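testing teh design pipeline on a random one, pls ignore if ur not involved
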Protein backbone atom coordinates (compact mmCIF):
# COMPACT_ATOMS: atom_id res chain seq x y z
CA UNK A 1 0.00 0.00 0.00
CA UNK A 2 1.36 3.39 -0.94
CA UNK A 3 -0.07 6.47 0.75
CA UNK A 4 0.96 9.93 -0.38
CA UNK A 5 0.10 13.59 0.11
CA UNK A 6 0.32 15.72 -3.00
CA UNK A 7 -0.66 19.24 -3.98
CA UNK A 8 -3.68 19.20 -6.28
CA UNK A 9 -3.42 20.90 -9.68
CA UNK A 10 -6.19 22.36 -11.86
CA UNK A 11 -6.36 18.97 -13.64
CA UNK A 12 -7.52 17.45 -10.30
CA UNK A 13 -10.64 19.63 -9.96
CA UNK A 14 -13.15 16.79 -10.42
CA UNK A 15 -11.20 14.47 -8.09
CA UNK A 16 -11.02 17.18 -5.43
CA UNK A 17 -14.77 17.84 -5.64
CA UNK A 18 -15.51 14.13 -5.37
CA UNK A 19 -13.44 13.59 -2.21
CA UNK A 20 -14.61 16.91 -0.75
CA UNK A 21 -18.24 15.84 -1.05
CA UNK A 22 -17.53 12.35 0.32
CA UNK A 23 -15.48 13.71 3.23
CA UNK A 24 -18.10 16.28 4.24
CA UNK A 25 -21.03 13.87 3.87
CA UNK A 26 -19.33 11.12 5.86
CA UNK A 27 -18.28 13.48 8.66
CA UNK A 28 -21.26 15.82 8.99
CA UNK A 29 -24.00 14.62 6.61
CA UNK A 30 -26.13 13.18 9.40
CA UNK A 31 -26.50 16.63 11.00
CA UNK A 32 -28.64 18.15 8.24
CA UNK A 33 -31.92 17.54 6.44
CA UNK A 34 -31.04 16.04 3.02
CA UNK A 35 -32.17 19.19 1.17
CA UNK A 36 -29.85 21.42 3.23
CA UNK A 37 -26.93 19.06 2.63
CA UNK A 38 -27.62 18.90 -1.12
CA UNK A 39 -27.93 22.69 -1.36
CA UNK A 40 -24.66 23.19 0.50
CA UNK A 41 -22.72 20.63 -1.55
CA UNK A 42 -24.01 22.01 -4.85
CA UNK A 43 -23.33 25.63 -3.98
CA UNK A 44 -20.22 25.58 -1.83
CA UNK A 45 -18.47 22.50 -3.19
CA UNK A 46 -19.08 22.93 -6.92
CA UNK A 47 -16.67 22.09 -9.71
CA UNK A 48 -16.51 25.74 -10.78
CA UNK A 49 -15.64 26.90 -7.27
CA UNK A 50 -12.80 24.38 -7.07
CA UNK A 51 -11.47 25.23 -10.53
CA UNK A 52 -11.26 28.84 -9.36
CA UNK A 53 -9.47 27.88 -6.14
CA UNK A 54 -7.00 25.61 -7.94
CA UNK A 55 -6.10 28.40 -10.36
CA UNK A 56 -5.46 30.91 -7.56
CA UNK A 57 -1.89 31.08 -6.15
CA UNK A 58 -3.25 32.40 -2.86
CA UNK A 59 -4.94 29.06 -2.15
CA UNK A 60 -3.64 25.51 -1.99
CA UNK A 61 -5.38 22.15 -1.96
CA UNK A 62 -3.78 18.81 -1.09
CA UNK A 63 -4.99 15.27 -1.69
CA UNK A 64 -4.24 12.29 0.54
CA UNK A 65 -4.18 9.25 -1.74
CA UNK A 66 -3.74 5.53 -1.10
CA UNK A 67 -2.82 3.48 -4.15
CA UNK A 68 -4.20 6.26 -6.34
CA UNK A 69 -7.55 6.56 -4.51
CA UNK A 70 -8.34 9.81 -2.71
CA UNK A 71 -8.91 9.39 1.04
CA UNK A 72 -8.74 12.95 2.23
CA UNK A 73 -8.01 16.55 1.39
CA UNK A 74 -7.00 19.89 2.87
CA UNK A 75 -7.56 23.47 1.74
CA UNK A 76 -5.72 26.61 2.87
CA UNK A 77 -5.75 30.26 1.88
CA UNK A 78 -6.14 33.82 3.15
CA UNK A 79 -7.99 34.18 6.46
CA UNK A 80 -11.65 35.01 5.95
CA UNK A 81 -13.27 34.20 9.29
CA UNK A 82 -15.63 36.73 10.88
CA UNK A 83 -13.39 37.90 13.72
CA UNK A 84 -12.36 41.55 14.26
CA UNK A 85 -8.66 40.65 14.64
CA UNK A 86 -8.34 38.90 11.28
CA UNK A 87 -5.75 40.98 9.40
CA UNK A 88 -4.38 41.23 5.88
CA UNK A 89 -1.71 38.55 5.46
CA UNK A 90 -3.17 36.11 7.99
CA UNK A 91 -3.66 32.53 6.81
CA UNK A 92 -6.43 30.02 7.36
CA UNK A 93 -6.86 26.26 7.28
CA UNK A 94 -10.19 26.04 5.50
CA UNK A 95 -10.67 22.28 5.43
CA UNK A 96 -8.92 19.15 6.72
CA UNK A 97 -10.73 15.87 6.18
CA UNK A 98 -9.80 12.21 5.99
CA UNK A 99 -12.19 9.29 5.48
CA UNK A 100 -12.91 7.46 8.72
CA UNK A 101 -11.26 4.26 7.51
CA UNK A 102 -7.91 6.08 7.60
CA UNK A 103 -8.24 8.01 10.90
CA UNK A 104 -5.78 7.72 13.77
CA UNK A 105 -2.93 6.60 11.55
CA UNK A 106 -1.01 9.87 11.73
CA UNK A 107 -2.10 11.03 8.27
CA UNK A 108 -4.12 13.93 9.64
CA UNK A 109 -0.99 15.21 11.41
CA UNK A 110 1.13 14.81 8.27
CA UNK A 111 -1.47 16.59 6.15
CA UNK A 112 -1.81 19.38 8.69
CA UNK A 113 1.98 19.90 8.91
CA UNK A 114 2.06 20.15 5.11
CA UNK A 115 -0.60 22.86 5.30
CA UNK A 116 1.23 24.75 8.09
CA UNK A 117 4.50 24.66 6.14
CA UNK A 118 2.75 26.14 3.11
CA UNK A 119 0.91 28.80 5.13
CA UNK A 120 4.21 29.85 6.75
CA UNK A 121 6.38 29.44 3.64
CA UNK A 122 7.41 33.12 3.86
CA UNK A 123 7.85 33.05 7.64
CA UNK A 124 5.61 32.88 10.71
CA UNK A 125 2.17 34.44 10.49
CA UNK A 126 -1.06 34.44 12.41
CA UNK A 127 -3.23 31.47 11.47
CA UNK A 128 -6.95 30.82 11.86
CA UNK A 129 -9.31 27.83 11.80
CA UNK A 130 -13.09 27.51 12.05
CA UNK A 131 -14.24 24.29 13.71
CA UNK A 132 -17.65 22.91 14.65
CA UNK A 133 -18.27 23.56 18.36
CA UNK A 134 -19.05 19.87 18.98
CA UNK A 135 -16.07 18.49 17.06
CA UNK A 136 -14.04 17.82 20.17
CA UNK A 137 -11.58 15.46 18.46
CA UNK A 138 -10.57 18.12 15.93
CA UNK A 139 -10.33 20.78 18.66
CA UNK A 140 -7.93 18.54 20.61
CA UNK A 141 -5.98 17.95 17.41
CA UNK A 142 -5.60 21.68 16.64
CA UNK A 143 -4.87 22.49 20.29
CA UNK A 144 -1.72 20.37 20.07
CA UNK A 145 -0.43 22.82 17.44
CA UNK A 146 -1.03 25.90 19.58
CA UNK A 147 -4.47 26.94 18.29
CA UNK A 148 -6.77 28.49 20.88
CA UNK A 149 -10.43 29.45 20.84
CA UNK A 150 -10.91 33.20 20.43
CA UNK A 151 -14.43 33.52 19.06
CA UNK A 152 -17.48 31.88 17.58
CA UNK A 153 -19.89 32.33 14.67
CA UNK A 154 -22.72 30.68 12.80
CA UNK A 155 -21.92 28.79 9.62
CA UNK A 156 -24.91 28.21 7.31
CA UNK A 157 -25.43 24.79 5.72
CA UNK A 158 -28.61 25.33 3.70
CA UNK A 159 -31.16 26.50 6.28
CA UNK A 160 -29.23 24.99 9.18
CA UNK A 161 -26.86 27.23 11.15
CA UNK A 162 -23.90 25.47 12.73
CA UNK A 163 -22.32 26.88 15.87
CA UNK A 164 -18.62 27.16 15.06
CA UNK A 165 -15.61 28.11 17.15
CA UNK A 166 -12.88 30.37 15.79
CA UNK A 167 -9.36 29.20 16.66
CA UNK A 168 -6.21 31.29 16.30
CA UNK A 169 -2.50 30.70 16.57
CA UNK A 170 -0.61 33.97 16.98
CA UNK A 171 2.44 34.56 14.81
CA UNK A 172 4.96 33.82 17.51
CA UNK A 173 3.33 30.66 18.87
CA UNK A 174 4.27 27.97 16.34
CA UNK A 175 4.05 24.45 17.75
CA UNK A 176 4.75 21.38 15.68
CA UNK A 177 2.13 19.10 17.27
C1 LIG B 1 -9.14 15.61 12.21
C2 LIG B 1 -8.51 14.52 11.33
C3 LIG B 1 -8.05 15.10 10.00
C4 LIG B 1 -7.31 13.93 12.07
O1 LIG B 1 -6.75 12.93 11.22
P1 LIG B 1 -6.11 11.58 11.81
O2 LIG B 1 -5.32 10.94 10.71
O3 LIG B 1 -7.13 10.79 12.51
O4 LIG B 1 -5.10 12.25 12.86
P2 LIG B 1 -3.86 11.65 13.60
O5 LIG B 1 -3.84 10.15 13.54
O6 LIG B 1 -2.67 12.38 13.12
O7 LIG B 1 -4.20 12.15 15.06
C5 LIG B 1 -5.31 11.61 15.79
C6 LIG B 1 -6.07 12.74 16.43
O8 LIG B 1 -7.06 13.28 15.58
C7 LIG B 1 -8.24 13.66 16.32
N1 LIG B 1 -9.37 12.83 15.88
C8 LIG B 1 -9.45 11.47 15.87
N2 LIG B 1 -10.62 11.07 15.36
C9 LIG B 1 -11.31 12.18 15.05
C10 LIG B 1 -12.59 12.41 14.47
N3 LIG B 1 -13.41 11.40 14.16
N4 LIG B 1 -12.97 13.68 14.23
C11 LIG B 1 -12.14 14.70 14.54
N5 LIG B 1 -10.91 14.53 15.10
C12 LIG B 1 -10.51 13.29 15.36
C13 LIG B 1 -7.92 13.42 17.77
O9 LIG B 1 -7.33 14.60 18.32
C14 LIG B 1 -6.87 12.29 17.66
O10 LIG B 1 -6.03 12.20 18.72
P3 LIG B 1 -6.51 11.80 20.22
O11 LIG B 1 -7.89 11.17 20.11
O12 LIG B 1 -5.45 10.84 20.66
O13 LIG B 1 -6.52 13.09 20.96
C15 LIG B 1 -9.49 13.33 11.09
O14 LIG B 1 -9.89 12.78 12.31
C16 LIG B 1 -10.73 13.73 10.31
O15 LIG B 1 -10.68 13.85 9.10
N6 LIG B 1 -11.85 13.90 11.03
C17 LIG B 1 -13.12 14.14 10.39
C18 LIG B 1 -13.13 15.49 9.70
C19 LIG B 1 -12.92 16.61 10.65
O16 LIG B 1 -13.46 16.61 11.76
N7 LIG B 1 -12.14 17.59 10.19
C20 LIG B 1 -11.91 18.79 10.90
C21 LIG B 1 -12.94 19.77 10.44
S1 LIG B 1 -12.48 21.39 11.01
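output:
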Amino acid sequence: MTTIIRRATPADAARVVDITRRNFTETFGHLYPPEDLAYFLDNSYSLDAHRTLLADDGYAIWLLERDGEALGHAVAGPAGLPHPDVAEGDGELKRLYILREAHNGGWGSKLFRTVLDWLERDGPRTLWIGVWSENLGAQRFYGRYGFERVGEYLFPVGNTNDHEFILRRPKAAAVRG
